[in-house]
């Protein structure tokens, strides 16, 4: 019953909230039978294996690292890249779809979340202030939710860079 509830909740809260039209997304079917909307590939030359999520391009890395090493590894991939930071629910949903596509058996990833408590409770998970869990993971006990965890724990991660930081004046985006 719990899995049915999670599937129903995710399908009702999916990306189909009117902010994007069907030409902007692909589809990925999840284990529980609903369609999860994948973002389009990043249309910056040389980064077509990344995905466009809002104003950033993101890529999933299936190489567990602690929080600090994951952040520094992101910085080596693209100038200005960092661990992905989530500010909108539809972006959270896209990231969930990306994680499900590349590693459906291990949904936990690191998130950059220094302004954690400004996030709406809709996306929030469980936070235990005052303990040693100072970093944030996505997909803890409930799919798509966040949790604080010890920074030394190794997890997969998603890097992000701002598209406009890579595009130079006069350069063309790929069609």
From TrEMBL:
The lineage of its organism: Eukaryota, Metazoa, Chordata, Craniata, Vertebrata. This is C-type lectin domain-containing protein. Residues 1-18 form the signal peptide. It comes from the Eukaryota. Coiled coil: none annotated. Keywords: Disulfide bond, Signal. CDD domains: CLECT. Residues 53-160 form the C-type lectin domain. PROSITE patterns: C_TYPE_LECTIN_1, C_TYPE_LECTIN_2. It holds the Pfam family Lectin_C. Gene3D superfamilies: Mannose-Binding Protein A, subunit A.
């Amino acid at each position: 019953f719990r899995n049915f509830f999670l599937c129903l909740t995710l399908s009702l809260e999916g990306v189909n909230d009117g902010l994007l039209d069907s030409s902007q997304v692909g589809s990925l079917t999840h284990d529980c039978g609903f369609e999860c909307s994948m973002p389009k590939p990043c249309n910056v030359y040389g980064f077509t294996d990344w995905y466009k999520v809002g104003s950033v391009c993101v890529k999933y890395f299936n190489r567990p690292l602690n929080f600090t090493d994951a952040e520094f590894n992101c910085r080596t991939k693209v100038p200005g890249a960092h661990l992905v930071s989530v500010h909108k629910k539809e972006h959270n949903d896209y990231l969930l779809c990306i994680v499900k596509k590349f590693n459906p058996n291990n949904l936990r990833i690191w998130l950059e979340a220094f302004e954690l408590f400004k996030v709406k409770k809709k996306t929030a998970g469980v936070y235990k202030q005052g303990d040693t869990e100072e970093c944030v993971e996505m997909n803890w006990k409930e799919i798509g939710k966040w949790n604080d965890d010890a920074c030394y724990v190794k997890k997969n991660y998603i890097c992000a860079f701002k598209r406009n930081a890579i595009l130079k004046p006069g350069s063309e985006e790929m069609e």
